[in-house]
Amino acid sequence: MSGRAVIRPVVDLLRRPDGPRDRQVLLGERMEVLEVLDGWVRICADKDGYEGWVPAAALGEDTEPTHWVSAPSTHAYAQADLKSPDRMAISFGSRVAVRAVTGRFAETAHGHIPVQHLMSVGERMADLVAVAALFLGTPYLWGGDSRWGIDCSGLVQAALLACGIDCPGDSGPQSRAVGALLPAGTPPVRGDLLFWMGHVALVADAGRILHANGKDMAVAYEPLEQAIDRIAAQGEGPVTAHRRPAIPA
Q: Pfam families, alphabetically (predicted)?
């Protein structure tokens, strides 16, 4: 095995075989195989260098993707017909290789996907908060990275990657690597990132944040000052970092 790609909609990336989930990888994501052991594969994900274990059966041949899913989620249908059986539900950020386009559907190895749910590889979105808002109501899931379950750092990573900004998978590295670190007391603006110990949120506007959080158990807006007070009252301390990502031109 050398380079491989995910062939299931969502796969848990585990700390060890049969161990706890650290993150997830999505359909079409590419990776380097580091080790193979009794039906398990230790991989390094291309998108962020995250390492972990996945079932060997979840991986297939590495195919150069041409498009990525830009809708919150979509379906791959058996034919280029919205009334045909759906073969697979696919999350935002997944990658596919389009073979041909028939009417309003793109043919892939997984089925026919509505073209309006896809963007070409290399195309970017331009508003971090608008991307994150696609996940509103998505259930909170520790280590989650998909429309069916996501956590705070997974939400931030999804938004930044969609806008062409490299981003680690966990909030700790994000707090040290993403964008410019701003001095304490800098007024937050839309698209800024606020970090607490073990948590990250996007600033939606001067008075609100957007985050995947355990209070709502979902992706939701929350008044900024309320969140600061609530998180401090929970014993998780104050804001530890304020960073401002820059959208590539």
A: NLPC_P60, SH3_16
* pLDDT tens column, 144-156: 999 999 999 999 9
The answer to whether domain 67-120 has CATH 2.30.30 is yes
* 225, containing H or E segment: helix 224-233
- Return the ∠ at Cα 235 (arms to 217 and 187), rounded to 5°: 80
CATH 2.30.30.40 domain position(s) in the chain = 3-61
Architecture label for domain 128-244: Alpha-Beta Complex (3.90)
May I ask the CATH class of domain 3-61?
Answer: mainly beta
> Whose structure tokens read 């209070």?
215
| Structure tokens given for 100 | 């041909």
Tracing tokens 């949120």 back to the chain, one arrives at 201
Q: Where are the alpha helices (DSSP H) in the chain?
A: 128-133, 152-162, 171-177, 224-233
Q: Which pLDDT score is estimated for 2? A: 63
